[in-house]
Design goal:
CATH architecture: 3-Layer(aba) Sandwich
Number of domains: 1
CATH superfamily: NAD(P)-binding Rossmann-like Domain
Number of strands: 7
Largest sheet: 7 strands, parallel
Number of helices: 8
Order of helices and strands: EHEHEHEHEHEHHHE
CATH class: Alpha Beta
Strand content: 5-15%
Oligomer: single chain
Shape: globular
Structural class: alpha/beta
Strand order of the largest sheet: 3-2-1-4-5-6-7
């Protein structure tokens, strides 16, 4: 297998870290990571070595940070083959009249516009390598969850972005994958939202945790990593699919 270079955002913990760990189990797989937690990224580099893992510590909404990561991939490893857009936030959560537009914009800057920016900055290189873009989406894109106006709508916008990209840019592939309800810091945050969500919706997430029904990051992370490394067929291109869908059985 020839060298495969993947850029992973939000790579220092949760699903992002799981993706990095799985990618770097494969020979000739290299990773460039973006996250704000420099210490956690340094720990990953110590584990895997700088010949396999490089990072840029910073906020992916900063165009200089994202451009630096793309430049690092091409200068250090000679190419960029995949982007896994994982970084995201769920807040603000609450009744629509209680949330300022500025809070909405902050969420959209990370969950949506940072990915538009990454695509714009990397497109020529991905077209050169016949690469792919994998977006970490959410079932909230298609379902109403109490108080999740900003988050759910940002993921719906992300799915449309990916579908449009797949239709327009024939030299690359793009797909959007929902990871299920994953055992990460975000879920802990959700369980503590209290009155920001209605009681019924909140109880669902509390019970999933209590009953041990959360997806471990490594389980869904494997699907993202394998999609990056293997690519996918034209019939899946541009689609929004849950990680455990039967269509993805070869990646699970």
């Amino acid at each position: 297998m020839s060298t495969h270079v993947t850029l992973v955002t939000g790579a220092s913990k949760g699903i992002g870290k799981a993706i990095v760990d799985i990618l770097l189990q494969h020979q000739n797989s290299k990773v460039v990571a973006i996250a704000r937690s420099k210490e956690l990224l340094e720990t990953l580099q110590s584990k895997y070595g700088s010949e396999n893992f490089q990072f840029i510590a910073g906020d992916v909404t900063d165009s200089n940070i994202s451009q630096s990561a793309i430049d690092l991939a091409t200068t250090k490893f000679g190419q960029l083959n995949s982007i896994i857009a994982n970084a995201g936030i769920i807040e603000p959560v609450g009744p629509i009249q209680d949330i300022s537009i500025e809070e909405w914009k902050k969420l959209y800057d990370l969950n949506f516009f940072s990915i538009v920016q990454l695509i714009q900055q990397s497109l020529s290189e991905l077209k050169r390598t016949g690469g792919n873009i994998i977006a970490v989406s959410s079932g909230a894109a298609n379902s109403a969850y109490s108080g999740w106006y900003a988050y759910g709508s940002s993921k719906a916008a992300l799915n449309h972005l990916i579908k449009s990209l797949a239709a327009e840019e024939k030299l690359i592939k793009a797909i959007s994958i929902a990871p299920g309800v994953v055992n990460t810091d975000m879920q802990e945050l959700i369980r503590n939202f209290g009155s920001k969500m209605n009681e019924e919706s909140l109880k669902k997430f509390i019970n999933l945790h209590k009953d041990g029904k959360l997806v471990e990051p490594e389980i869904c992370g494997k699907v993202y990593a394998n999609l990056a490394l293997k690519g996918w067929s034209d019939d899946l291109n541009g689609e929004f699919i849950r990680f455990d869908d039967a269509k993805l059985k070869d990646y699970q």
